[in-house]
Amino acid sequence: MDEVKIGIVGLGNVGSGTLAILGDNAAQIALKLGFQLKVVAVCSRSVHTKQIPEALGPVIKTTDWREVVTNPEVQIVVEVVGGTGVAREIIEAAILNRKSIVTANKELMAECGPEIWDRAIHAGINLAMEASVCGGIPIHAVLREGISGDKVMALYGILNGTCNYMLTQMEERNVPLAQVLAEAQALGYAEADPSADIDGYDARSKLVLLAALAFGEKITPSDIFMEGIRRISPIDFRYAKLLKHTIRLICGARKTPDGLILSVRPALIPLSTILAGVQGAYNAVWVKGKYGEDTFYYGWGAGASPTGVAVVSDLMRVAREIRSGSPERVSPFAHERLGENKPVSVTLQTRAYFLRFRVDDRPGIIAKLAGILAGKNISLDAVFQEPAEDPRDLPFVITVEPTSEQSIRDALAEMSQLDFMRDAPLALPMETAL
Fold first, then answer.
1. Which superfamily is assigned to 3-135+304-324 in CATH?
2. Which CATH architecture is the domain 139-300 placed in?
3. CB 395 within 8 A of CB 356
4. CA dihedral 112, 118, 120, 121 (to 10 degrees)
5. Cβ(288)–Cβ(294) below 8 Å
6. Which residue in 105, 111, 112, 107 sits closest to 128, CA to CA?
């Protein structure tokens, strides 16, 4: 039986998971393909301490990725190093050496994926990146092929399992973010420096890729409004529950008459929606099509095995292309060319909002805040206040009727200057259209 030969650069969780699947599931993979996937070389800075599955047979081990990329036997290079530095060098070198590429690198693909794809096409090789978003969900394949006949009007997702784990723990146990973050780090869900997760950078990179696939536009990270979860507290969940809502870090992309609006931010979503039921470290994506209406995709967003499955599935697809010699390659971005229409500002968005305040309690506070809102043509909907434990640090919530994001920002800027504010007001959109 013929073989397609593979070199893997990076033996962290994803690389090791990929090797384990290639070794343990080799027979089933060969039955599906009609030929074998053969790992001939692996690279890691600590490669000689790594356990390589015996089922893979003899494998070249090296600490120099160039030995993998330039190896004449290697036909597909798997880049699972991550980041935008060395990883970019590896991919560029693979293209120069006319090796097809499978990558799980969301950050690099979000930053310059279309340009890398153009270079790959000119070199006559393929690029696959299914594992870069929602490792356990084949969402790229869905948008690229499964529902490609539809016209996507909106896409909403929970794309960061670490944040979702922390938010659901805060909600269930009424504990602060700092505590659940420490627990997530101990479990290996969160890094020692958690900013990529809790500040939204990881989710933003993923939304860049999904928005390009869904809408056919060239998106960059700076096009997307981003706000993390650092300011979410247990009191916010208690008030959200009174409103029959919960709080999730929502990645949103939707077409409006003004243009495409993109955001990554914590938002209130109704408890009755399917996204509200996404618990723990799971990911989910809801897509609304013009013709096919609603579809929903759910699964593990990360982890060695789920992401390894995505890498191996990409390897199988690319290997088939190599064997068939097909000159027509489907773009990993689902469109032959991405458009250059820039998304419009999130300030044009109209939503109801949840406004949470912490104040030094005194008479006239509600009247003062209501006056500022009225001055921005914002109508109050309701006011919620739990019994005060400390009147010098009193949390309460005002919900307002649908208004523009810009109006809310203007009102909050004025409110933040009031002398009774303990900190800046927190504003969360209420996503009732899910």
1. NAD(P)-binding Rossmann-like Domain (3.40.50.720)
2. 2-Layer Sandwich (3.30)
3. yes
4. 160
5. yes
6. 105
Catalytic residue among 99, 206, 218, 288: 206
Residue 83: closest CA among 105, 56, 112, 58: 105
Three-class secondary structure of residue 165 per DSSP? helix
- What is the three-class DSSP state of 251? strand
10 close to 17: Cβ distance less than 8 angstroms: no
The sheet that has 60-62: what strands, in order across it?
Answer: 60-62, 36-43, 3-9, 76-79, 100-103, 127-128
Per-residue pLDDT in tens (0 to 9) along the chain, 434 residues: 589 999 999 999 899 999 999 999 999 999 999 999 999 999 999 998 888 999 999 999 999 999 999 999 999 999 999 999 999 999 999 999 999 999 999 999 999 999 999 999 889 899 999 999 988 899 999 999 999 999 999 999 999 999 999 999 999 999 999 999 999 888 878 888 999 999 999 999 999 999 999 999 999 999 999 999 999 999 999 999 999 999 999 999 999 999 999 999 999 999 999 999 999 989 999 999 999 999 999 998 777 888 999 999 999 999 999 988 765 667 888 787 788 788 999 999 999 999 999 999 999 999 999 999 999 999 999 999 988 788 889 999 999 999 999 999 999 999 999 999 999 999 999 998 77
Cα angle for residues 387, 163, 195 (degrees, 5° grid): 105
Phi, psi at residue 207, to the nearest 5°? Answer: -65, -35
Q: How far apart are CA 248 and CA 177, in angstroms?
A: 13
139-300 and 349-430 share one fold: no
- Class (C level, CATH) for 349-430: alpha beta
CA distance 403 to 405: 7
Q: Is 206 a catalytic residue?
A: yes
Please state the pTM of the whole predicted model: 0.93
Q: For residues 297 and 329, what is the distance between their CA atoms, to the nearest angstrom?
A: 25
Helix (H) or strand (E) holding 275: none
SS3 326: coil
Give me the residue spans of the domains in the chain: 3-135+304-324, 139-300, 349-430
Please name every residue paired with 350 in a beta bridge, in sequence order, or none if there are none: 404
> Buried b vs exposed e over 329-345: b needs ≥16 C-beta within 10 Å?
bbbbbbbeebeeeebbe
Residue 155 · residue 127 · CB < 8 Å: no
Structure tokens at 221: 């990270």
Task: Give the pLDDT score at 372.
Answer: 97
- The Cβ-side half-sphere exposure at 37, using a 13 Å CA radius, reads 32
